[in-house]
Amino acid sequence: MQEPMLRLNGVNENLQIRIETALRGADVPQKVELAVLTIFPEFPVPTHHENPQLGQAIDTVWTGQNVSLATFLKLLHEQRILDTALDAMTASFEGSKTEFSLLRQAAIVGKVAFPLPGERPLGGLIHVVLEGQNLGDWLEAATWHKGRDTVPRSIQDDNTMGADGEAVTWI
């Protein structure tokens, strides 16, 4: 019998997790709420939020601390985007800290998608900041899959996708 796969969530692994999303202009809070809660169901959505009105644009930031990453990581595994996730989540890796963004427009339908660097997509972003000792090891474990037995990967290795989001071809 195969043992069940270890499920990481970040909260119980000594990581500091901050998730935030900015509501700007005509963003509809209920749609933003749905997008964030689809990926991070434990995110503390503010109980009172105003809809934008003509001439009164929205301008606020929702922030959650130490929100579980369990659903996010489960979606990465289900969507089989673990190598892409490792690359995107570690593009700004600095030893004990990294930050990355997710597309809210994809999140609303339960998909995880990472924007290209500098991209400001329609629908907005969910910004994630992770900090902690041994963060690199945690990220590699959280995105591990059986294919890495054959083609090992590590943070910012020679197989990391290019800055333009293009895949690197393995030789």
Write the SSE topology:
Blueprint: E1 16-25, H1 29-39, E2 58-65, H2 70-78, H3 82-89, E3 97-103, H4 104-107, E4 125-131, H5 135-142
Provide a brief overview of the structure:
With 171 residues, the protein is an alpha+beta fold.
Cross-sheet strand order for the largest sheet? 2-1-4-3
Number of separate helices: 5
Radius of gyration: 17 Å
What summary fits the major beta sheet? 4 strands, antiparallel
What structural category do the secondary elements indicate?
alpha+beta
Q: What is the CATH class name?
A: Alpha Beta
The 3D shape can be described as globular
Uncertain ranges: none
Provide the number of structural domains: 1
CATH superfamily: Ribosomal protein L5
The ordered string of helix (H) and strand (E) elements is EHEHHEHEH
Distance between the termini: 36 Å
- CATH fold-level name: 50s Ribosomal Protein L5, Chain: A
The CATH architecture classification is 2-Layer Sandwich
- The number of distinct β-strands equals 4
As a percent range, the share of helical residues equals 10-25%
Share of β-strand residues: 15-25%
